[in-house]
Batch of 2 targets.
Target 1
Amino acid sequence: MATLNDAQKMVDVLGKFIDIVSKELPDDVMAKLSELRVQEANPLAKTIYDVMFDNLDKAKKLNRPACQDTGVIQFFVRAGAKFPLLGDLRRILREATISATKSAPLRLNAVEVFDEVNTGTNVGTNVPFIEWEIVDDSSNIEIEVYQAGGGCSLPGRSIVLPPLAGYEGAMKFVFDTIVDWGINACPPLVVGVGIGTCSNSAALLSKKAMLRPVGTSHPHPKAAEMEKTIEEGLNAIGLGPQGISGKNSVMAVHVEGMAHHPSVLGVGVTVGCWANRHGVIRFDEHLNYEIISHKGVKL
Ligand code: SF4
């Protein structure tokens, strides 16, 4: 039986985790940035990578966020149906957000809708954003936190294409979006593409695709081929780090999909920036936790 103390323990752990995620990039992103840095030959682009790594080093040493825009906090929850604190989780996630906002500190990025007044806490109507998946027969919970900055959210788009547009039309939409808007999102980018029926299903899948660990491919060979084709095409544009031109535009392109209505093809695009601050933590029913995304990090 879960107690108030258990809930507070989870608030404390999650608050510290959100704080860490604002300051240290996950292992997959660090590994890919290191790889792209080595590949870069353009002197200005090499300098930008040096500055990025110096920035990350200083963020860690000085205990400060890696970018001034710490984003809107978003949670992607894969909750076991038997996890004991499920009924209190929304409050726990909101409290943890408020706690990290004070400790990190995070920039105050929740502007209340319609009133256009900053709430001052990073909490507001439907913020933090929470997306739930219930996992049958499990008592564990996996919580992914993402810090959605303004610049990297700006290229986000979704569209519903007529059936004849096909996957070629979907890829054209991705290219048009990144060519027009990608430079605003501080490349090298992680591009998530969602294929669905309507604009919301495609958009949500594109966010989930963007959050997939960098370095993974879709298990379906046609989706993996699409990822490779878009990645090669976007890299050929040569946006380079921070868009000043260079060898690569992207860290990765990830595609996710779902069965769709035969008359339409929904396509969503979500972009993550070089400072791609996401992290995954898993709790068991006794609130023992494991940090999946940042190996060796202690809270
Ligand atoms: S796009 Fe990313 S790195 Fe650039 S300012 Fe926004 S949050 Fe920071």
Target 2
Amino acid sequence: MQGDGIIKELVLLDGKSAARVLCGSSLIPAPGRYLLAHAGGSDAPLAASIFAARAFADTSMSASGFLCAPPIPESWTPGMRLNLRGPLGHGFDLPITAHRVALIAFDDSPYRLLALFDSIPKQDSSVVLICANLPEDLPLEIEVQPMSALADICSWADYIAVDAGRGSLPGLKKKFGFGRPLKIPDVAQILVRTPMPCGALAECGICTVEIGSGRQLACADGPVFDLKELL
Ligand code: FES
């Protein structure tokens, strides 16, 4: 699907630029899915892959849109028109039975994971966040735990969502094992951040990820994968 969006405003999230983007509701990416965005009039050769940190409804303008998680292209300014393609890729599949949810962001902001928060039933559910960079505007319902609690939280959770850069994947097993046997829930997923310039259109292969069952394209097979395939 293709459509237009407009940058309503830029906001700072943990010191990084993010943007509120107005667009049709069918273009809003579900958690873990992405859009390829190209600013109208821009001479940037490649589109940027962008993720939602949160969907929103702008009642003052009767419009829908989403808070685009950082990072965003430096050239973006308020009022800019965006050509959007998507939503693309495979996102998070939060089981409806999940009541103990762990969100783990290893090396970047956790906003792509926090997009899941609205989908988690608030009654009888607990959400724990482990991350290197703690957001300032975290909902009170989310409990924060240090990275040193990772193994215990993985044993406690019945669903895990992880955000990690492709470059950090070789060290992933060590992070989860901490020298002990791995214990993670049956449903555990990981969003692998990597450049996705063509969004599977040209099969450029730049987004290739090595997983247990072979090479996969993050743009089409991911960017959300089964965590166990990478451990
Ligand atoms: S971004 Fe080109 S194949 Fe994935």
